[in-house]
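Recall the central idea of this unit: under ordinary conditions, the amino acid sequence of a chain determines the structure it adopts. In this exercise we apply that idea directly, starting from the sequence alone.
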Amino acid sequence: MLQSKVLAHDGVTHGFFTREGGVSSGLYGSLNCGPGSKDDSEDVAENRRRAMQMLGIEPDHLRTLYQIHSADVIVIEDTQKFESRPKADAMVTKVPGLALGILTADCVPILFTDVKNGVIAAAHSGWKGTVSDIARNVVEAMEKLGAAREHIQVAIGPAIAQESYEVGPEFPGPFLDLDPSSERFFIPSVKAGHHMFDLKGFVYSRLERLEVAAIDMLANDTCAEEDLFYSYRRMTTRGEADYGRQLSAVALQK
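Accordingly, the structure predicted from this sequence is:
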C-alpha cells in the first residue's frame, strides 16, 4: 500500500492500496476489494481481509459504501455492521478501530484526519462529486463532530492524471460555472472539442479553499500504471468486460 506523509501520525492508520498482494485472478488480479465487481465474492472478501490486516484493523470493521457519484456524506456513530451499504460517497466518524474505505478505479480517493480531536473521514470524488463540492461537505461534517480546520490534514490518493483523462464537449462548462478560474485545469485534446482534464489538480484547489492544515497529493496515474492500479478508463478503451477496484482506507487506532 501507499501512504501519505501528512497522515503519518500516532493514533491513526491509513493506506492507499494498489492491486498487488491479493488472491483474485484474470481481470481482477490481484487485490480487488470491490464487491460491486463480478469477481468471486470469496476472493474479494479475502482481499479486504488482507488489506485490513495490513492496517491492523479487524476485518469486520471495514466500512464501504454503495458509491453513487454524489456529494452525500454519512456519519458513522458505532461499530454496528451495515445491513446494506448506504448510498453515499463519503463517511465521517469518531469511532476508534473502524476503517472508512473508498473504492476507486480512476476517481479520486480523499482521506481526512484530525488526530487532535479524533475525527476522520474518507471520500470518493469523481467529477460529479467534485463539482458538487463533496470535500466541503466532508469538512463541515467533521466540524460537527468536533474537528477544527486548523487540525484537519488531507491526502489525495492515486487517480487518473490529466494526460490520461480526455473529456468531451460538455466540459469544462460545469467547472467554470463553479469557479471561472478552473479553466486552468483543462487543456485542448488532439480530438476537436475535447479537453484533457486535471481532476486531481481541481480537487486540490477546492481543498485549498477550505483552509485545512495540510494537503498532500500522491502523483500516481491509475490509468497509466497498469501494474499497480485498476482503471475504468483503461477498461473501456480496451473493451474489457469488467474491472477491479482499489481500496483507500483510514482508521483511528484504539
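The helical segments are 41-55, 127-131, 134-144, 173-178, 199-209, 232-238.
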